[in-house]
Amino acid sequence: MEKTTIFPLNKKSQYFIFCIIMIALIIFTFLIAVSLGSVKLGEDSIGKIIINKMTGKEVYAPTWEESAEIIIWTIRIPRTLTAFIVGAGLTLCGILMQVLTKNSLADPYVLGISHGASAGAVSVIMYGYLSFLGGYGTMVGAFAGAMLSIIMSLKIATIRKKLTATQLVLAGIAVSALFGAATNFMIYHSRTGSDKVRTATYWLMGSLSGASWEKLQYVTVAFVICFLLIMLFTKQLDVLLLGDDVASTVGVNTDKLKLSIIIIATLLTGIIVSISGAIGFVGLTIPHITRTIVGTKHKRLVPASLLVGGAFVVIADILSRVLVAPEELPIGVVSAFFGAPFFLYLIRKSNRKLGG
Amino acid sequence: MDSGFKNKLSVEGLKYSINTKVIVDGVSLDIEEGSFVGLVGPNGCGKSTLLKNIYRVYAPTCGAVYIDGKSVHKMTSKEAALEMSVMQQENNIEFDMNVFDMVMLGRFAHQKMFHNDMHRESEIVRAALREVGMEGYEERSFMSLSGGEKQRTLVARALVQKTKLIILDEPTNHLDIGYQYQIMNILKSQDMTVFASIHDLNIAANYCDRIILMKDGKIIDFGTPEEMFVTPKIKGLFGVDTQIKTNSVTGKPNIIFLPTI
Prior knowledge:
The complex is a heterodimer.
Chain A: H1 12-35, H2 43-55, H3 66-101, H4 113-127, H5 136-157, E1 158-159, E2 162-163, H6 165-190, H7 195-205, H8 213-232, H9 234-240, H10 244-249, H11 254-276, H12 282-294, H13 298-322, H14 331-355
Chain B: E1 7-18, E2 21-32, E3 36-40, H1 47-54, E4 62-67, E5 70-71, H2 77-83, E6 84-87, H3 99-104, H4 118-131, H5 147-159, E7 165-169, H6 177-188, E8 193-197, H7 201-207, E9 210-215, E10 218-223, H8 225-228, H9 231-238, E11 241-246, E12 253-258
Parallel strand pairs in B: 3-8, 3-9, 6-7, 7-8
Antiparallel strand pairs in B: 1-2, 1-4, 4-5, 9-10, 11-12
């Protein structure tokens, strides 16, 4: 019996069309994200502001107020670009975690790595012991926290060299709870007043409100480097999905590869969390959805899912600003409303597989 | 064991223990080039552990494994993959892929990071799929296949590695009898040295040139199927009484198990 299915899109042309559609969607959502807010400006003015700023000249004579220009250029545009990079980066981390554990339930948030990174970042900010590193201190702290938590999660989840889905999820819950508690403790220990609640929410639920061009630069450089490195290893990632034993018999040095994956994924998670807090479920849902559309091969999966993940967080950011306007929802609330039901669905699916 | 013939695979004094428990206890063996050798023994005797030491999933506590005189554990993963391919029981994978891509992964060790002749690579994959009777399945998803089809796909993946030695770690377990013979036929027709752990003694008798008997982590005997499959040896190994006849068609020993009444 031949099953006829549209997905995955096996043809190259279909794949490129999918990517082009995603890029168009990203440009469209970018313009909406930048034009939304208390200061209203049309798309044409936004385009003119961007061109003026990029060229450094007044190509178009301003027909808008200077304050609007400042809001657009120094707040909304870096924020929206950060949303894209954060989405794409978390998706990349999710893919790497899934290859590492051979489990579609894995992602930096589920495994507790995001909260580990938050705790690391908060400890640096609150107690200032890495102040000699300046702006990099927070990132280094987040990376250290991410590293500590991934080691804990994987150690707890691995029994006799075997890693089961149930163990993995349970380990993630425990590690997440531990580092979430540590984050809360450090914040309540060092801050006073209403500020502490807001700070805790920022780190544990995520927010893009702190985005700036400077932070965007760091995270973009880190993301691009990680992305390019991973694109060199797509074949190895494909092979590793077959299991460590099989991967080593077809010629992959699994120990070295897995160590590289852990380092890249924790580094990127740490840097992303240090600028956006812990935004959940992006790395879980996006790779899974994209995999059903473009297939499992990482050479196709990685670029396509980064586009989808970027678009997802840009849209989630728009929703976080619109749903309870003029208040702003933590972006993690929006991503969890979408991601948590999806997580439940994946758990059910993996149970069915065990039963069958 | 034979003089004048080249040994493809040699194991020398291999010991493997977990904590203080000895699983493989000083195994030495030679596999002659071009032969089909079966490893037979009861469950838990260390067959699979021995094979995993050979194909580098485990590192031996002491002893060494050589292919053509080169120490397996001193090779890089890639070098080892060019010398020996391995077929295990079908493992459950979480992420699906199509049959063509699955077999192509067996080409990993032959491919460079950039600039591969993908036309030639595809031809090798298609030829292997033809060889195992899976032509026309290229676009099918691996997880939708039956047990026998999955196993044949994995044979194709091992074949595209183009090695001269293949290790089979209980390759035909869980398959019905038709598929078991089909897979053994495919492997027997290859120009390869085969070292396989086999549960079914009649399959071992029909396909193997040499049989190695293993019990309690040690090799207790080796020889031709005619020499090994005799009533007292099988009784000693598995505790089962047998009647053994020479099959008039194959000329191989035919083992009939007798119930204890």
